[in-house]
Amino acid sequence: MSTEPAESGIRVITEPSVYVIGRQSIDDAGLNRFLADHGVSWQTDTTVAGEVLSETAGRACYMSFAKPRPGGNSAYLNHIKEVGHGSVLEHAVWNFLITGVSRSLTHELVRHRAGFGYSQLSQRYVDESVAEYVAPDVIASDPELHAIWLEAIATSHATYMVLVDRLNAKFADPQASAAALLPPDADRTAKRKAARQAARSVLPNATETKIFVTANARALRHFLEQRGSVAAEPEIRKLANKMLDVLQAESPNLFGDFERVPLPDGTFDLQTPYKKV
Prior knowledge:
Largest sheet: 4 strands, antiparallel
Radius of gyration: 24 Å
């Protein structure tokens, strides 16, 4: 959800968006050749690649293809989570594009290192003159607080645009002291980048960003436990809730054990009986 206030060039966002950009596929020929080479036949009952790969990895550890337990992939992965054999979940990987989140949130998100990869919107290259900002719900829901917040955002935004304009002018003037700080062969693009990277220092943590995230199922489960918790910061908890919606649709056998406990702020505390898998 977003609103368009009167201040030109400023858009306020209150809801993140999560887009699934990529997911794995199975090379059936390769898997069947492995099974034939080892004299076993096996077939799972799921078509979700990440679930197939996690089960295949787990069965490879014990060569348990010939005598699978009853209950199919769901029962198998629940047993994996129950006994904490989480390493096999690292073979299930998804790619996401996340938008409508603040740079404050991504400072927390990128602390999740093991099992995650990130590519984030560059404030050095991307012009922020038409910018988006993420308002905390506790501020957005209160007209008085929202007005105070929006005034501060508008001031920072206007200051950014003035700094960019004046820095660009100074970098274009070879006699200006600022121009002397640039490499002697700086072209127009380099000068524009230098102006934006200096001016961005006044932009607030609330500035909206976009981040491409690649993560495996084990790392994603840890993210959901940590950031979907009642103790988490509200904006990233909201993102964790959105991520769970996507992941349970993508892979119910890997993420269906998470349950939602309603919280007063409209989000949910994400809980699972299989902690720290």
